[in-house]
Design brief:
conserved putative lor/sdh protein from methanococcus maripaludis s2 fold; transmembrane; Elongation Factor Tu (Ef-tu), domain 3; efflux transmembrane transporter activity; 4 helices; six-stranded antiparallel beta sheet; alpha+beta; about 350 residues; six-stranded antiparallel beta barrel
Length: about 350
């Protein structure tokens, strides 16, 4: 009995496979489709909705130029004395206020010099006081005819000499006190420390830089611009800039156009003042947008565009019927998009 069942099963399997294959072929041949009478087509309904007429508008394209953020005000704080750096109180990146103590220079020699001059001045003051008393006494005796005129003249000359010496010492003391004040290095501006250029213990000479500062409230964008573009720029003109690291986009004012910054590449250095912005620091990469001559392009509202993955399309109304058409887009301008290919002025789009 089992032998007969096995034979039946072997016979049914090929037959089932053949029947299934015939069904698939029949389906692909359209035998199960609804039969449409020859010469008749379904009539699509005419579009009755709102329409938008495509038109051209003047579009300003921009040439994007690589640029950098720089500090408009950079200051090197230097020593005025020949002495040793005693202490340095700031670090790179630290914010400082004008008048804040940045560093101190060893003032032992200057203190000794000031003390010496002060002592000489005090001693000379005593001599001058005695000479003036002696001059008064001589003048009194000379009026009584008790001393010669030349004695009075000698004491008058002595007083004048001591006065001159006293005045010279006063100037020396003033210079010593000024030098002592120079041992306190103060911040000349409100700013941020860029770099420590010396360390405590270093021997300084007049003019040796100690600290580099910049003012974060006064920043610029600098860019090398082709001479054809630079020739059209004007001072005080406002141009669009973008700083990717901070996400900032604003309009900056052209403040300088430096002639022939690179004679080989025929480029000019253009500097633009920017407003104070958060998280913007010197050295950041920036982009400068230089406007070109306006050109006529097709612009359509963004809401009329449909997207399928990476493809974009619109619905065009032709003879009251809707047709899908793929288009290639350009830049976004406010709430409109520039169409580079696929549409022409005068065509009608469906709004729905």
């Amino acid at each position: 009995m089992s032998l007969i069942s096995n034979k039946v099963s072997r016979a049914i399997l090929p037959a089932s496979a053949l029947i299934g294959l015939l069904v698939i072929v029949a389906y692909m041949a359209g035998m199960f489709d609804e039969v449409v009478t020859a010469g008749t087509k379904p009539i699509p309904q005419a579009y009755q909705g709102e329409e938008y007429v495509v038109s051209e508008s003047a579009v300003v394209h921009h040439e994007v130029v690589n640029a950098n953020v720089t500090a408009k005000v950079n200051t090197l704080v230097a020593s005025r004395l020949l002495a040793q750096l005693k202490s340095l109180n700031v670090r790179a990146g630290q914010s400082v206020s004008a008048g804040e103590l940045l560093a101190e220079i060893d003032d032992a020699d200057l203190q000794a010099r000031a003390s010496q001059v002060k002592a000489q001045q005090d001693a000379l003051a005593v001599q001058l006081k005695q000479a003036r008393k002696q001059l008064e006494r001589s003048e009194t005796l000379q009026s009584q005819g008790l001393v010669a005129v030349n004695v009075v003249d000698e004491w008058r000359a002595k007083v004048n000499e001591l006065q001159a010496q006293h005045q010279a010492l006063a100037q020396q003391l003033e210079g010593a006190l000024v030098a002592l004040s120079d041992t306190q290095i103060l911040a000349p501006i409100d700013g941020t420390v860029v770099e420590r250029l010396q360390e405590p213990g270093a021997m300084l000479t007049p003019g040796t830089p100690i600290v580099a500062l910049y003012n974060p409230a006064q920043l610029q964008v600098t860019a090398a611009v082709r001479e054809q573009q630079a020739s059209h720029l004007q001072l005080s003109e406002k141009l669009k800039i973008h700083i990717p690291a901070s996400g900032m986009t604003q309009y900056a004012t052209v403040s300088e156009i430096v002639p022939v910054a690179d004679s080989n590449a025929r480029r000019f250095m253009v500097k633009l003042d920017i407003e104070l912005a958060n998280n913007v620091k010197p050295g950041m990469y920036a982009q400068l947008y230089l406007p070109e001559k306006p050109r006529m392009h097709v612009l359509i509202p963004r809401q009329l565009i449909k997207r399928y993955g990476q493809l974009t399309m619109v619905e065009v109304v032709e003879q009251r019927q809707l047709h899908k058409r793929f288009i290639r887009l350009g830049q976004v301008i406010d709430n409109q998009v520039e169409v580079l290919a696929g549409l022409e002025a005068g065509e009608i789009l469906a709004v729905r």
